[in-house]
């Protein structure tokens, strides 16, 4: 794909759980280097959106493309092969779902590289680069996950996703389980990652916390009952929300800081 083509495209995506429609006609584009925040209350369809992008859920209608590849209809061996490419990586709300509690953080971070038979020296270099990108001290990674704070574990989980050099990082509620200090460190790590990686990496950050998204995202997408009700530059959406639902979300946050260098 060329540098101008979207890293992620959803066209008219709908998802059903049984007889219940969870996502309805969702269209979304994320370009290289862009950080897009998806905000909505519990039950709005945010996690289903993330799982659909990663092909853990098959859409009932529409198309999902990642790095120029239509992944909508991938099944079986083709789906497994695409996942091994590592073009899209998922960071869970709970980092212990990414980090094996019985394995050192160092080994967890490079597990995917070991499976892909990446040489040890290259794996160590990529691990060091990922740790630097998230601001995590390399001395900590000899510990088990239980020996790290919640914020440190989340940054280790992000590093684990970064070592495979993805084009797209999908983060599902990455700070919601953290205390205020840890939440700020993770948000700052994501801002630094955005600035360092530039067009090499696009991020889709899903959260109910519009304040954190305002601090790190270029665009905000507002999801309500499975539909996108607003999509625009973060500064504009926060300062001049158009949809009543967006207005209510913003009014519920006493103070929102938008990025000081938010890109158009």
CATH superfamily: P-loop containing nucleotide triphosphate hydrolases
End-to-end separation in angstroms reads 22 Å
CATH top level? Alpha Beta
**Beta-strand fraction estimate:** 15-25%
Low-confidence stretches: none
Q: How many helices?
A: 10
Run of helices and strands: EEEHEEHEHHHHEHEHEEHH
Overall mean pLDDT stands at 89
Class inferred from helices and paired strands:
alpha/beta
Radius of gyration: 18 Å
As a percent range, the share of helical residues equals 25-40%
Largest sheet: 6 strands, mixed
Query: How many domain modules?
Result: 1
Strand ordering within the main sheet:
6-7-8-3-9-10
CATH architecture descriptor name? 3-Layer(aba) Sandwich
Number of strands: 10
Give the CATH topology: Rossmann fold
**Overall 3D form:** globular
Characterize the structure shown.
It is globular, with a radius of gyration of 18 Å. It has 264 residues and is an alpha/beta fold. It contains 10 helices and 10 strands. The protein has a 6-stranded mixed sheet, sandwiched between helices. Strands 2-1-4-5 form a 4-stranded antiparallel sheet, with helices on one face. It has one domain (33-50, 79-251): Rossmann fold, CATH 3.40.50. α7 (180-197) links the parallel β7 (168-172) and β8. The protein has helices spanning 46-53, 76-85, 105-109, 111-115, 120-134, 150-162, 180-197, 210-216, 234-239, 244-251; strands at 8-17, 20-30, 35-39, 61-66, 69-70, 88-91, 168-172, 202-207, 219-224, 227-233.
């Amino acid at each position: 794909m060329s540098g101008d083509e979207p890293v992620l495209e959803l066209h008219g995506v709908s998802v059903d759980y049984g007889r219940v429609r969870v996502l309805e006609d969702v269209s979304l584009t994320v370009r290289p280097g862009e950080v897009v925040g998806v905000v909505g209350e519990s039950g709005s369809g945010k996690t289903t959106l993330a799982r659909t992008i990663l092909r853990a859920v098959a859409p009932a209608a529409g198309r999902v493309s990642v790095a120029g590849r239509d992944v909508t209809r991938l099944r079986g061996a083709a789906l497994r092969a695409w996942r091994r490419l590592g073009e899209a990586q998922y960071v869970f709300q709970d980092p212990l779902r990414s980090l094996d509690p019985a394995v050192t953080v160092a080994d967890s971070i490079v597990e995917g590289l070991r499976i892909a038979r990446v040489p040890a020296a290259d794996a160590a270099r990529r691990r060091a680069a990922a740790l630097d990108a998230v601001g995590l001290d390399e001395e900590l990674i000899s510990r088990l996950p239980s020996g790290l704070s919640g914020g440190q574990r989340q940054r280790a989980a992000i590093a684990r996703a970064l070592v495979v050099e993805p084009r797209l990082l999908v983060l599902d509620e990455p700070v919601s389980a953290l205390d205020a200090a840890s939440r700020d460190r993770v948000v700052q790590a994501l801002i630094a990652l955005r600035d360092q990686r530039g067009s090499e990496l696009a991020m889709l950050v899903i959260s109910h916390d519009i304040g954190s998204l305002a601090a790190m995202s270029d665009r905000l997408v507002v999801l309500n009952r499975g539909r996108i009700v607003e999509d625009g530059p973060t500064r504009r959406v926060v300062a001049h929300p158009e949809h009543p639902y967006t207005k209510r979300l913003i009014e519920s946050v006493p103070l929102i800081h938008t990025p000081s260098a938010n890109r158009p």
